[in-house]
Design goal:
Layout lengths: L12 E14 L6 E9 L5 E7 L10 E13 L2 E8 L12
Parallel strand pairs: 3-5
Antiparallel strand pairs: 1-2, 1-4, 2-3, 4-5
Length: 98
């Protein structure tokens, strides 16, 4: 009999272990926002770079994570690229609540 784990999760998620983290201020010309880039390795040996803008807390190196993410495409110097960003539960800033 095989063991399975059922998770009630919607959307895209990233699971793995934090191998490294780097903190910086962005954008370069007028740095105001803190950004943390985590290096995440999954169980298959794949490496991902997870961006977290304006973090309220930090993941520790060696910590196992399973977090919701979103993909942000952009046009860079070498063509089309993308970043993997931490999806946060934030209240909408658009419009007025009523």
């Amino acid at each position: 009999m095989s063991r399975t784990t059922v998770k009630e999760a919607k959307g895209l998620r990233l699971s793995g272990t934090i191998e490294a983290r780097v903190k910086r201020l962005v954008p370069k010309d007028n740095p105001k926002t803190e950004s943390v880039t985590y290096t995440v390795n999954d169980e298959n040996g794949n490496t991902y770079y997870l961006q977290d803008y304006s973090p309220e807390s930090y993941f520790e190196v060696g910590e196992s994570i399973d977090v919701p993410v979103y993909i942000k495409p952009y046009v860079g110097n070498k063509g089309i690229a993308y970043t993997i960003n931490l999806k946060k539960a934030r209240k909408s800033s658009r419009g007025e609540a009523f």
